[in-house]
Automatic annotation (TrEMBL):
UniProt domain Major facilitator superfamily (MFS) profile: residue ranges: 1-410
Membrane topology (UniProt): Multi-pass membrane protein
Location in the cell: Cell membrane
Top-rank taxon, per record: Bacteria
Keyword terms of this UniProt record: Cell membrane, Membrane, Transmembrane, Transmembrane helix, Transport
Protein name as it appears in the record: Major facilitator superfamily (MFS) profile domain-containing protein
UniProt source species: Tumebacillus flagellatus
Length: 413
C-alpha cells in the first residue's frame, strides 16, 4: 500500500488521478440519469435501450481504432483537455435534450470523445509513470473504475427523487469541469512522433495514415504476451457478459429472494475493489503476469460453472455461501484485469500506445455489446444454469490451456 501512496505523492500523476476520479464518477452519474430518463420519463422499452447500448458501444468498437492514429500524433494534454471540455458541453446539452433521437446523437458523440480520451490516458500513464510504478498506476485506475461503478449509481439514484433526473446532468457537468481543470494542469508531453508528423509534407497522407494504423495491429500480432492477454481478456469478457444480464433471473431461479439480488451485486462490486487493491499491493505476479492472469481467469470460470450447477441442484449453498462465491468472482475478475493492464503498458512502445490500447478497448467493448444478446438467446435453449455452465466451462478451459501451454517470456520484477 505504501508504494501506491508514494505514487500519489507525485504531482503530475496525482493530477491525472484526480481528473480520473471526477470523470469516472461523472460518467456513472450520467449513465444512471440516462437510464431513468429513457425508461421512466420517456417510458421507452427494450428496443430503445438496445439502441442506446449500440450508440454507446459503436464508437469504441469502430471509431476508436481509426481515431487512434491521431492520439499518437497530437499533444496528449491538449487532446485530453479538449475531449473533456466537449464532454462537459454534451453533459449540459443532456439537461435540455427534448427527445430520444437527439439524445442518441449526443450519446454517440460523447462516446466518440471517450474513444479518444481512453487511449490518450493510457499514453499519458506511460509517459508520466516510471516503469517500476506501472503496477500501482494501473491498479489505482481499476480501483477508481470499480468504486465509481458502485458508489455513483447508488448516490445518483438517491439524488434523483430529491433534485430531479435532469439536474444530475448539471452535477455531472461540475465533475467534468473539475476533471478538465486537473487535466489542464498536467505537464505538456511532447513525443518524438509529434514533431515528425507536424513537419511531414501533405503528400500521400492517406497512405501514411493506413501505414501508421497497421503498425499498431502488427505490434499486437508480433508480441505473444500482448496478443495472448488481449485474446484471453476479450474472450473472458464475452463469456462473462453472456450471463451478466441473466444474474437477476439466476437469483430468482435459486429462490434467494429479491433482496438477495442487491446483496450479490454488491458482493461482486466489493470483490472487484478488493481484487484490484490486492493486485496493486502484491508484486509477486510481476515476474509472470500472464500466468496469474490465466490462473485467476481459471478460478473465475470455475465459480461461474458452479453457479450454473447450483441451478441444476447438484449441490446447494445458503445465500451467504453464494454471496461469498460472487465476492470471490469479482476479486478474481479484477485480479485478472490488473496484469492485463500492466502487460498493455509494459509491452507497448510509447509511440504506439494510442493505437494498441484502442484495439484492445475495441475488442473488449465488442464483447460487452454482443454478449448479453447471445446469452439471452442461449438461455432460451439451455436455461439460465446452462449459460452459466457453458461460459464458465469455456473460460476455465481457455485459461487452463494458456496457463499450461502458452508461456510468454517472464517479466522482471
Amino acid at each position: 500500500m505504501s508504494s501506491i501512496v508514494v505514487l500519489l505523492k507525485t504531482p503530475a500523476f496525482r493530477k491525472l488521478f484526480l481528473a480520473d476520479v471526477f470523470a469516472n464518477f461523472g460518467n456513472w452519474f450520467d449513465f444512471t440519469a440516462l437510464m431513468v430518463l429513457i425508461a421512466y420519463e420517456w417510458k421507452m422499452g427494450a428496443g430503445m435501450l438496445a439502441a442506446f447500448a449500440i450508440a454507446q458501444g459503436a464508437p469504441m468498437i469502430v471509431l476508436g481504432p481509426l481515431l487512434s492514429v491521431w492520439v499518437d500524433r497530437l499533444p496528449l494534454r491538449n487532446l485530453m483537455t479538449a475531449c473533456m471540455v466537449l464532454r462537459l458541453l454534451i453533459s449540459v446539452a443532456f439537461f435540455f435534450v427534448p427527445n430520444f433521437y437527439i439524445l442518441i446523437v449526443l450519446v454517440f458523440l460523447r462516446c466518440t470523445l471517450a474513444s479518444i480520451h481512453f487511449p490518450a490516458r493510457q499514453a499519458v500513464i506511460r509517459q508520466l509513470v516510471p516503469a517500476d510504478q506501472v503496477q500501482e498506476a494501473v491498479s489505482l485506475g481499476q480501483i477508481i473504475l470499480y468504486t465509481s461503478q458502485i458508489v455513483a449509481p447508488a448516490l445518483g439514484g438517491a439524488l434523483i427523487p430529491v433534485i430531479g433526473v435532469r439536474n444530475i446532468f448539471l452535477l455531472e457537468s461540475v465533475m467534468l469541469l473539475l476533471s478538465t481543470v486537473f487535466l489542464a494542469m498536467l505537464p505538456n508531453i511532447l513525443r518524438a512522433n509529434e514533431s515528425k508528423n507536424s513537419s511531414a509534407s501533405g503528400q500521400n497522407k492517406t497512405a501514411q495514415y493506413f501505414k501508421e494504423l497497421s503498425e499498431g495491429l502488427s505490434h499486437i500480432r508480433s508480441n505473444s504476451m500482448l496478443f495472448t492477454s488481449i485474446i484471453l481478456l476479450s474472450v473472458g469478457m464475452l463469456l462473462v457478459v453472456l450471463y451478466d444480464g441473466l444474474l437477476v433471473l439466476w437469483v430468482k431461479e435459486m429462490g434467494l429472494g429479491e433482496s438477495r439480488y442487491g446483496t450479490i451485486v454488491s458482493a461482486l462490486g466489493l470483490g472487484s475493489i478488493v481484487g484490484a487493491v490486492l493486485a496493486g499491493i502484491w508484486k509477486g505476479w510481476l515476474k509472470a503476469p500472464m500466468r496469474i492472469m490465466s490462473f485467476t481467469a481459471l478460478l473465475a470460470g470455475l465459480l461461474s460453472a458452479a453457479a450454473g450447477f447450483g441451478t441444476w441442484h447438484l449441490f446447494s449453498l445458503s445465500w451467504v455461501g453464494w454471496t461469498v462465491v460472487f465476492l470471490l468472482f469479482g476479486a478474481f475478475g479484477a485480479a485478472a484485469s490488473i496484469p492485463y493492464s500492466y502487460i498493455l503498458q509494459t509491452e507497448t512502445p510509447q509511440h504506439l500506445m494510442g493505437r494498441v490500447s484502442s484495439v484492445s478497448s475495441s475488442s473488449l467493448n465488442a464483447a460487452t455489446i454482443f454478449g448479453p444478446g447471445i446469452g439471452a438467446f442461449l438461455a432460451g435453449y439451455w436455461g439460465i444454469g446452462g449459460v452459466f455452465v457453458f461460459s464458465g466451462s469455456l473460460l476455465t478451459l481457455l485459461a487452463l490451456l494458456i496457463f499450461l501451454f502458452i508461456n510468454p517470456r517472464p517479466k522482471q520484477a
